[in-house]
Specification:
Layout lengths: L7 H8 L7 E6 L2 E7 L14 E7 L2 E5 L2 E5 L4 E4 L5 E5 L5 E7 L18 E2 L1
Parallel strand pairs: 1-9
Antiparallel strand pairs: 1-2, 2-8, 3-6, 3-8, 4-5, 4-7
């Protein structure tokens, strides 16, 4: 049987009901592709041991850094290096974003809060 194909935007619309609730799209070796809808503002945080990649699939987002924001639109990609403090936020209603990171990466990194999701669902 061939691997399962997923349309990430359609799957996000069907299965993700809350913002900042990452869902696993697939496993790639020791990493995972995760999809989330973004909301107004996430927590400031850093990932001490992991780089984190973001690809905007729909809408627009900003990732705030202590020295200024970076805005991303559909198709834009950025890698946040390990240890760099950042805060994602939406610029449009519920943008859909693909994140690629080690499977052990906690979404809030070193900042535990109500937005921390330790038990991720799958698309």
């Amino acid at each position: 049987m061939p691997p399962r194909k997923i349309n990430l935007v359609e799957a996000a619309d069907q299965k993700i009901s809350k913002v900042f609730d990452p869902h696993i799209a697939g496993d790639v070796n020791d990493s995972q592709a995760k999809v989330a809808k973004f909301g107004a503002t996430f927590d400031w945080h850093a990932h001490e041991h992991e780089d984190e990649a973001f690809l905007v699939l729909r809408g627009r987002i900003a990732i705030d850094f202590r020295d200024g924001p970076v805005e991303l639109g559909e198709g834009d990609f950025i890698v946040v290096p390990r240890g760099v403090e950042h805060r994602p936020r939406s610029l449009t209603a519920e943008p859909v974003v693909l994140m690629f990171e080690p499977a052990t990466t906690l979404n809030t990194g070193n900042a535990k809060s109500d937005l921390t999701v330790a038990d991720l669902k799958r698309l």
